[in-house]
Write a structure and sequence with these properties.
By secondary structure, the protein is an all-alpha fold. The mean pLDDT is about 80. The longest helix has 22 residues. About 60% of the residues lie in helices and about 0% in strands.
Length: about 70
């Protein structure tokens, strides 16, 4: 897809979404719940994508990298 078509596709999807919401206005509770779920999932996805470090780094680490074990205790 060309870069010139991206704004047109975004506008078309936005207009389609508005049309669907307008069509389902009699079912406002269902539309509200659906949009709330979509917004929550979007926030979670953005939060995961913006996480500062990978969790794989911590999964592969050993205990000695985080604490100094004193042999006199044992």
């Amino acid at each position: 897809m060309s870069f010139a078509l991206v704004p047109v596709a975004e506008a078309a999807l936005f207009t389609l979404g508005c049309l669907i919401i307008h069509t389902l206005r009699r079912h406002a509770d269902l539309v509200t719940a659906t949009l709330a779920c979509v917004a929550t999932l979007l926030v979670l996805m953005i939060g995961i994508a913006c996480a500062p470090e990978s969790f794989a780094k911590y999964q592969a680490a050993s205990i000695t990298e985080y604490a100094r074990l004193d042999p006199a205790i044992y």
